[in-house]
UniProtKB/TrEMBL annotation:
<dbReference type="InterPro" id="IPR004305">
    <property type="entry name" value="Thiaminase-2/PQQC"/>
</dbReference>
<feature type="domain" description="Thiaminase-2/PQQC">
    <location>
        <begin position="20"/>
        <end position="220"/>
    </location>
</feature>
<dbReference type="Pfam" id="PF03070">
    <property type="entry name" value="TENA_THI-4"/>
</dbReference>
<dbReference type="InterPro" id="IPR016084">
    <property type="entry name" value="Haem_Oase-like_multi-hlx"/>
</dbReference>
<keyword id="KW-0784">Thiamine biosynthesis</keyword>
<protein>
    <recommendedName>
        <fullName>aminopyrimidine aminohydrolase</fullName>
        <ecNumber>3.5.99.2</ecNumber>
    </recommendedName>
</protein>
<dbReference type="GO" id="GO:0005829">
    <property type="term" value="C:cytosol"/>
</dbReference>
<dbReference type="InterPro" id="IPR050967">
    <property type="entry name" value="Thiamine_Salvage_TenA"/>
</dbReference>
<comment type="pathway">
    <text>Cofactor biosynthesis; thiamine diphosphate biosynthesis.</text>
</comment>
<keyword id="KW-1015">Disulfide bond</keyword>
<dbReference type="GO" id="GO:0009228">
    <property type="term" value="P:thiamine biosynthetic process"/>
</dbReference>
<keyword id="KW-0378">Hydrolase</keyword>
<comment type="similarity">
    <text>Belongs to the thiaminase-2 family.</text>
</comment>
<dbReference type="GO" id="GO:0050334">
    <property type="term" value="F:thiaminase activity"/>
</dbReference>
Amino acid sequence: MDPVEKNGVIDRWVKKHLVLYTGATRHPFILSIRDGTIDFSSFKRWLGQDYIFVREFVPFAASVLLKASKNSDDNSDMEVILSGLASLSDEISWFKQEAAKWDVPLSDVVVHKSNQNYCRFLESLMLPAVEYSVVFTALWAIETVYQESFSHCLEDGSKTPPELLEACKRWGSEGFGEFCRSLKKIVNRCLEKAPDEELKKAEVTFLHVLELEIEFWDMSHGGPK
Ligand SMILES: Cc1ncc(CNC=O)c(N)n1
């Protein structure tokens, strides 16, 4: 086995699509948090939209859990996803608390087009016919973009405003990093065994997540709409 093969499919894809990957994980929105120049109205816009996204993400994660219980050849997959679902329960409470702190009325957030597109994409992945390896690739990518983005705002030398540290720690912490590494191991295992056509589908799904994440950041970063 050559060293590239040994690293697994995911590392190969990240290398192959590094420009898009970096576009999602080092977006100007994130860089503005890290260098302290962020406009708080952008953060508030992100907060309201992401609360809506996360509420849609819960049934998606649950659909992956369901597929794990039926298709997985490793019964620890289910435990990993279940722990993710448990954190989402915490996360929803956090969003509500944070929104109150920032005076963002969650009940009347108007869903932005980019968010709607992303949620529609999640819905398409919830269909029973979509393969386990494909949905797991999406789950890994969605979580990892946030992990890589927010951990960047906690690194030495970052000037993240203290008001935003808690948000950054939610996804940038070591615990969430460990969770993402567990997801990556599972995806690599699934993809190693996937037939070529399924592998191609998973790669396209990965790229689609990156594009949707970039559009999500764009929406937060841009002017009021
Ligand atoms: C747009 C987007 N992508 C990924 C995440 C992280 N997953 C769950 O919280 C998120 N909250 N929002």
